Amino acid sequence: MTGEILDLVYADVLDILSLLQPVAVVTAWLVICQGLAQSLIYLAQLVLAYRALRHGPPPRAGRALWWDYSDVVMPIALLVPAYNEEATISESIRSMLSLEYPDFEVIVINDGSKDGTMDALIAAFDLTPMVRPYDEAVEHRPIQSMYGSPRHGNLLVIDKENGGKSDALNAGINVSRAPLFCAVDADSLLEPDSLLRAVQPFIDDPYRVVAVGGTIRVANGCEVRNGRVVRTGLPRRILPLFQTIEYLRAFLMARLAWSELDALTIISGAFGIFRRSVAVEVGGYTHGTVGEDLEIIIKIHRWMHEHGQHYRIRFIPEPVCWTEAPESLRVLARQRMRWQRGALETLYRHRDMILNRRYGRVGMLGLGNALLTDVLGPPCEMLGYLLVPLFWATGALSFEFLAAYLALTFVFGICISVGSLMLEELELRRFPRARDLFVLTLAAILENFGYRQLNNIWRVGGFIQWLRGAKGWGKMTRRGFTKTELRET
Amino acid sequence: MGEGLLGLIWWGSLSLALLSVLGMLTLVLRRFFLTRRERRAAAWREAIMRGIVRWLDGDEELAPIERAAEGRLEIAADLIAELRQVVRGEQRERLAALAGSLGIVEFNRRRLITGDTRARRLVAARLAIGPAEHVALALEAALDDPDYQVRLAAARSLAELRAIRSVRLLVDKLGLAAEHNSRVLYYIFRQLVPALNGQLVALLQAERSVVIKGLALDALGQSGDGTLVEPISRLLDDLSPEVRAKALRALADLGYPEAGPRALRALADPAWWVRTQAAVCVGRVGFLPALPKLAELLADEQWWVRFRAAEALYALGEKGRAMLKAAAAATGGRAARVSELLLAEKEGAA
Asked: How many of the other CB atoms lie within 10 Å of CB of B241?
C-alpha cells in the first residue's frame, strides 16, 4: 500500500517536474542573459578604462600642476553643506582652506543643524556677521544670516533653515560668485591638489565641459592628520576592505569608461565640480531626493540635449577625495538601500530618456546600462540565487545551467575586481606597499563569495523601499577620523 | 548551441578569472622590483640635486654632476625642469647653461622627435629651459606634431622663451579655429605682449573666429598700452556678443578713461553679458557720465547686470554711492534689493 502511494507521489513529482522544466529553463536563460550582458559591459568598461588611462596624461605631482595651471585656472567656490557636524566641521574646513589652488573660496552651508555646528564654526574661525548680495537663481529655504572670517578672507558661512542637502547646495550655488563650484561633503577628506587636478578638463576644453567628477577612495586604515590623508593604508576590517575594491571598480573602471563614451550619468556627491551657470539653468539640485548627485547630472544631460548644446561631462581617474566607509553591516545595508532607492527615484523620474535616441549616448548607453544594472539587475540576480540552485536540485535544470550561473555571479566578478586593481597598479600606484596589493588581490577574489550577494540583497531591499515610497536618508553612523590618525591597531 | 554557450560562459569566466589573478600576482612581484629601483633612483636624484644646488650657488666644477648624471640623463632632465620653476634671473641662466653642458638639451631635443606621445608632451615642456637659439627650431617643428598636447606644450615653451615670431603661424599650427581652445592659450598669448602687439591687433582685424579674437583681446588687455584703446573699441561693433564682451573686458583691464564713451554705449547692449562687462568697464575706468545709465541698470532683468552696475556705482565715488542709497531707500523691487545688499556688503553692515 505504502509502495503504491510512493509510486503515485513519485509520478506526480515527475509530472510537476516535467511541467516545471520549461519554466526553469526560461527563468535560467533570463537570469543568465541578464548576467552575461552585465558581465560583458563590465569587461568592455575595463578595456575602455585601460585605454583611457594609457592615452590620458600621466599622473603628475601637484606642484607640477600648480606651475602649469596656476595662471589659467578659473575661480572655484567649494560648497560644503553641513548638518549636525559639530564634532568634525572645524577640522574639515581648516583642511579645505589649505587646499592648493590659486583662487577659491569655501562656502559652508549650515543646514539648520540641531547641534552646535554653527557655534563651533563661529568659535574656530572668529566669524562675524556679514552680507553678500546674491541672486535668487535656484530655490532653497530662507538664509537667516551669513558670516565671514577676518582671518580667512575666502571663508563664508551661511546659516539657513533646514531643507536637506540639495537645498543647502542650492543656497550655496546662489551665494557663490565663481564660474565653477565644487560640491563636497563636510566629512570628505580632500587631496591637497584635488581642485587643481579636477579642474583640468575645464582648462583643456573650457567651452564644452560642464561638470567633472573624480575618484573617491576609502580612507579607513589610512593615516589622517589635520583633515588630510598623509599615508595610504588598507582597512583592517573586511567590510571596508571589500569597499576599497568596490570603489576602485566603480570609479577607476566604470566611471572612467562611461566618461570616455560621453555617457557618464553620475558624479559622486562627495566631490564634483560644476559650471555654475549650467547648474542654475537646470534649476539647481532637486529637492526631496536621496540621489541628488545622480539627479543633477541627468538633469544636465537632459537640458543640454534639449537645447542642442555641445557639452562634456568628464571624469578624472586620480583620487581627489577620501571618505570613511561604513564598518558595520547595519550601516552599510542602510547606505546601499538608500543608494539603490536614489537611483530608482531618478531613473523613474527621467524614464522617458532611457533608451531614447534623442538623448544620444546618454540615453542609449548610460541610461540603458542603468536600466540593466540598477533596475533589472538586482531582482534578476536575486531570482537566480533562489531558483537556479532549486531547479537544479530538483532536476529541472542541467548542471551546465548551474555552472554558467555560478560562473557569472561568483567567478567572472573576480576578473573584473582584479582587473580594476591592475588598472590602479599599472597607472596610478597609490597603494604604497606590495603587501597591500597582495591583500587587495585576495579581497578582490573573496568579495565575490558572499559580499557581492549580500550587496545584491540590500539593493533588492532598496528596490522594495522605493516601491513602498520610502523617503529620507536614515541615520549614517560614522566612526570619524581621530585628530591624528585613523590607523587601526 | 545553448549548451555550448553555457560551457563557454563557465570556461570563459574561469579562464578570465585565473588570468587576471595571475596577471595581478605578476604586478605584485613587479612592484617589489620597482620599489627597489625607485629607491636607487631616489638616491641618484639626491646626488644630482646636491651637485646642481652647488652649481647654482656658484661652484664651477662640473665633473661631480656629470659623474652623478652619467647614464641617468632622464633623472637630471626631470630635476632641471623642476628647478627651473623655482629659480629666477641669474640662477635660471646658470641652470640653462648646466642643462646644455650635461647634454640634457640635446637629450630632450632627441626625445621630442623619437619619444612616445607622453614623452613628447613632457619634453616639449622641458625645453622651455632654453636657450632659445638652441631649442626654438626643435620646438617650432613640434608645432606640427600630430598630438595637440605636444603642440600646445611646444607653443608654451616658445612663448616663455619669447621665441614666437609669427602669431598667425601659431594660430594656424595650433588649429585654434577648430575645437582646440585650452585656457593655456590665454597664458601663451599673454606672453606675446607687448612685443607682438602689432600682430595681435592685425589678428583682431583679420580674424573671424570668436575664440582667436578673445585670446588676442585678453592678451592686449594685459599690455597696459593706452594706444590699444582705439583698435579694441572698434570691436564693440562686432556682431558676436562674446567678442563685444571680451573687448569691454580688455578695455576694463587696460583702465584708460578714453574707453568710457564707447563703454557707455555698450550699457544698452541687447546681450546681458555685454551689459555686465560694460558696467564693469565704466566702473574700472572711472567714467562718471555713466552714472545715470548705471542707476537704470539696477533694475535690469538680469542679476549679474544689476550687481555689476551696483558695484560700478559704488566704485564711482560719492555720487554713485548716493544713487545707490537712494535706490536702496525705495521700497521693494530689484534695484532696492541689490543696492541695499551691496551697500551692506561694502560698508560692513549686518
From this structure: 17
Dihedral of alpha carbons B270, B276, B279, B284, sign: negative
Across the interface, whether the CB atoms of A131 and B186 are under 8 A apart is answered: no
Q: Which residue has the higher pLDDT, B90 or B322?
A: B322
Q: Evaluate whether B267 touches B279 at the Cβ level (below 8 Å).
A: yes
CA distance to partner chain A, nearest, from residue B218 (Å): 12
So what's the ipTM on this one?
A: 0.91
Nearest CA to A262 among A200, A312, A298? Answer: A312
Q: Which of A63, A208, A441 minimises the CB distance to B24?
A: A441
Which domain does B134 fall in, by range?
65-161
Chain-chain contact of A133 with B19 (C-beta, under 8 angstroms): no
CATH number at residue B272: 1.25.10.10
Residue among B24, B303, B344 minimizing CB distance to A421 = B24
Average pLDDT over residues B17-38: 94
The tally of domains found in chain B comes to 2
Closest CB from B2, B16, B31 relative to A425: B31
In the listed set B130, B161, B192, which residue is the last one of a domain according to the structure? B161
Of A306, A334, A353, the last residue of a domain is A353
| Pick from A160-169, A286-295, A297-306: least confident | A286-295
CATH code of residue A159: 3.90.550.10
Give residue-wise pLDDT tens across range B104-130. 999 999 999 999 998 999 999 999 988
Per-residue pLDDT reduced to its tens digit, B144-195: 999 999 999 999 999 999 999 999 999 999 887 656 789 999 999 999 999 9
Q: For position A488, what pLDDT does the model report?
A: 31
